[in-house]
Amino acid sequence: MRQKPTLRIPLGILALLAALGVYALAVAWASQWIERLPVLAQALVYGVLGVVWLLPLRRFLVWMETGRWG
Fold first, then answer.
1. pLDDT tens column, 26-43
2. pTM above 0.85, yes or no
3. Helix (H) or strand (E) holding 8
4. What is the three-class DSSP state of 38?
5. DSSP assigned state of 1
6. Summary mean pLDDT of the chain
7. Angle (nearest 5°) at CA 66 between 65 and 67
8. Would you list the domain boundaries of the chain?
9. What is the mean pLDDT of residues 38-64?
């Protein structure tokens, strides 16, 4: 249980929103090449890109709550 509030959570939320915004813009920018792929390949690429951002999320949320990366 936290004893006193820290800035990790509000700053972490802002960093998370900023990182997701940059990631979304990068995917939107890459869509000019993704759209040239066959439809099934597009679905696979967008499916992977839609899930891959979740991989670092657990560690980041743990850091926001505890201050440790694990």
1. 999 999 999 999 999 999
2. no
3. helix 8-34
4. coil
5. -
6. 91
7. 110
8. 24-70
9. 93
